[in-house]
Amino acid sequence: MKPRALRPARRRVLLAAAAVLPVGCAGPQFVPAPAGAVPAPSVRIGQRWRYEEINCHNGERLAVVTAEVTQVSPQLRVSLTEANGRRRDDEVYDRPWRVVEEPWYDYTQIFDRPVPLVPEPIASGAGGFTMVGYRSVLGRDYPLVWNERLLARGWENLRVPAGQFLALRIERIVQFVHIDFRREESVRKETLWYAPQANRWVQREWNGEYVIPGGDFKQIFREDWVRWQLLDWRPA
Predict the structure, then answer these.
(1) Buried-most residue among 89, 92, 159, 232 (CB within 10 A)?
(2) Residue 204: how many CB atoms within 10 A of its CB?
(3) Cα diameter, the chain
(4) Contact at 8 Å (CB) between 68 and 88?
(5) How far apart are alpha carbons 140 and 135 in whole angstroms?
(6) Distance separating alpha carbons of residues 17 and 15, to the nearest angstrom
(7) Are 84 and 62 in contact (CB under 8 A)?
(8) Rounded to an integer, what is the distance from CA 214 to the centroid of its chain?
């Protein structure tokens, strides 16, 4: 049986519930926006960013991952390599940073059309609602539901291991159908901090919840809670 999108009323409830999911210990500390319009992201072959990947449930460092631009046309492709040399699936975009293939979650997802990770224009208050289908590299012969709300909340002075950046805080709330059909009411919240200086996010974090029904009750489970922080970066 093919999965169905949740009814609009239920979707509104889920999106409201997701807004209270924890993403960090402290609330945002917004600062004035940079002067003038922020230029659209522009990357070149050889540009590189190195991140540490952290399990926020226990503070454990999971990996150090290098993201490097290897192709810019006809699609933008960013290779991901761990410190031990193990390759992960590539990030694929139609342009920076509208994702087509997303490897940062529990499994790689391939969207039917590009999904924006950074709003256009890059400004506080920008955003929108996206409804797409996606397929998993694990294999399905039909698309699964992915509905998300994106909102740029404001600018923050964010300190990460690579230094301090003026970064736009971008929040995404997603209601989707997971490839594991035992999961119902899957809701995910993600926050990215996009820094124009680095042409990419300098911190990124996601978590979520889902339900597995059982008899007369339903049990709520937590997804992974993962954060990536920029260690260093290199322009092309």
Answers:
(1) 92
(2) 21
(3) 58
(4) no
(5) 6
(6) 5
(7) no
(8) 30
Q: Is the dihedral of CA 89, 90, 91, 93 positive or negative?
A: negative
Q: Given this model, what pLDDT does residue 140 score?
A: 67
Inter-residue contact 126 to 117 (CB < 8 Å): no
Place of tokens 């489970």: 221
Residue in this structure with the two tokens 């970066």, named with its chain if needed: 233
Walking along the chain (236 residues) 10 residues at a time, the average pLDDT comes out as 35 39 65 95 96 97 98 97 97 98 94 97 97 85 93 98 98 96 95 97 97 83 96 93
Contact 117, 97 (CB under 8 A): yes
